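Internal tracking record. Fields below are filled automatically when a chain is submitted to the structure queue. Please do not edit lines marked as system-generated. If the sequence contains nonstandard residues, flag them in the REMARKS field before resubmitting.
Queue: standard
Priority: normal
Entity type: single polypeptide chain
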Amino acid sequence: MKLKLGKKRGKRMTLNQLKVGNSAVITTVGGDGALRCRLLDMGLIPHTRVTLQKVAPMGDPIEIRVRGYELTLRVEEAQKIEVEDEPATSVE
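SYSTEM-GENERATED OUTPUT FOLLOWS
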């Protein structure tokens, strides 16, 4: 049995495109001025792992787990955050 730990890159997407229960790593935080500062202040900085916990019945807002706490964001805000899903390690 071999365990491959290559540097494969995961799929790039915005935070709102993540599926419930999946995790990803933040690559870019967009937005203008105060919004960007607010997102960064809440701990949404590049190289931070996030997990999508819940999506409201109508699709907005979404709840993510970041740095050990739950955070609720509007979909409009989540669209400004680019993530890369974590590639699964393959076992042969």
